[in-house]
Amino acid sequence: MEREFLSGSAAGERILKPGQPLFVRGMEEYCEVHPRQPYQDTVVFYYSYSLSPHYLEKVRVIPDGCIDLYFLCDRNAPRAYVVGTPTKLKKPFLPSVCEYFGMRFWPGMAHPFFPCFQREFTDSEVALDNILAEEGRRLAEQITMASTLQERICLVNAFLSRRLSHPSRAPLWMRDVITMIFQYRGCLKMSWLEEYFGYSSRYLRMIFERYVGISPKKMCRTVRFQSMLKEMKTSRRHDLLDVALAHGYYDQSHFDHEFQLLCGSSPGRFHSLCK
């Protein structure tokens, strides 16, 4: 297989930013802040929003390959959760009507902070104090009591810095596999990854489920879908099938089925919502 790709942080500028268009659409006071070094290779962005009762039944999340850490900034009951990527369309875990603050990790970059197999988070959420005990409870309280978004970012960065000092157990080549998947927009066969990196599909899957949360095959599927959504936003309606074919979908039926499963609507309806 003769394929070249950018390894390490050099590929960062070309990596697709995973998004949640069905989550942020219509969200009140939603704000994103992009990280500075040394956190850019770990964090996609920090975010803050207020949740109102009428929005609870409308919001949905789609596969993005990422793990989030978010905080319920309720001064009467501050809490924090680690939330894994969904593998299909789902209603998010939003237990309180309050202000939320969170951060999204790049795929494969959350494992140094949470000492467990990352597949335990997939399609699920785990209270931070169940993972980090008193440290998790204290961080949730500090984040909630902070009065500004910048203060909250500083507090969570301090948490990241403490954890980043611990050596990662993930193999170094795993990040190169993720980089290749992003660079080729998820349009990769498992046989190509096996040949290029010299590992069996079974071993690749074991490493990914442990340190990323999902298999390489599911990561390819997720990245392909995220890439297609991004391109759909700038495409004309009658070009949607061409966009799908360019991303490896076989035909209209395959495209429609995948879209309904992962996004909960038809491609045409999603395209209209983005305009």
Write a short abstract of this structure:
The chain has 275 residues and is α+β, with helices and mostly antiparallel strands. The protein contains eleven helices and six strands. It has two domains: 145 residues; 102 residues, Arc Repressor Mutant, subunit A, CATH 1.10.10.
Notes on the protein architecture:
The chain is of the alpha+beta class. The protein folds into two domains: 145 residues; 102 residues, Homeodomain-like (Arc Repressor Mutant, subunit A, Orthogonal Bundle), CATH 1.10.10. Helices cover 40% and strands 12% of the residues. A six-stranded antiparallel sheet has the order 1-2-5-3-4-6. Helix 5 runs parallel beside helix 8. The radius of gyration is 19 Å and the shape is globular. The N terminus is likely disordered.
Which H/E pattern describes the elements? HEEEEEEHHHHHHHHHH
Report the principal-axis shape.
Answer: globular
Number of strands: 6
Classification by helices and strands = alpha+beta
Tell me the Rg in angstroms: 19 Å
| pLDDT < 50 stretches | 1-14
Q: What composes the largest sheet?
A: 6 strands, antiparallel
**Number of helices, where a helix is a run of at least 4 consecutive DSSP H or I residues:** 11
* Strand composition percent: 5-15%
Number of domains: 2
How are the strands of the biggest sheet laid out side by side?
Answer: 1-2-5-3-4-6
Binned, the helix content reads 40-55%
Q: What gap, in angstroms, lies between the N and C termini?
A: 39 Å
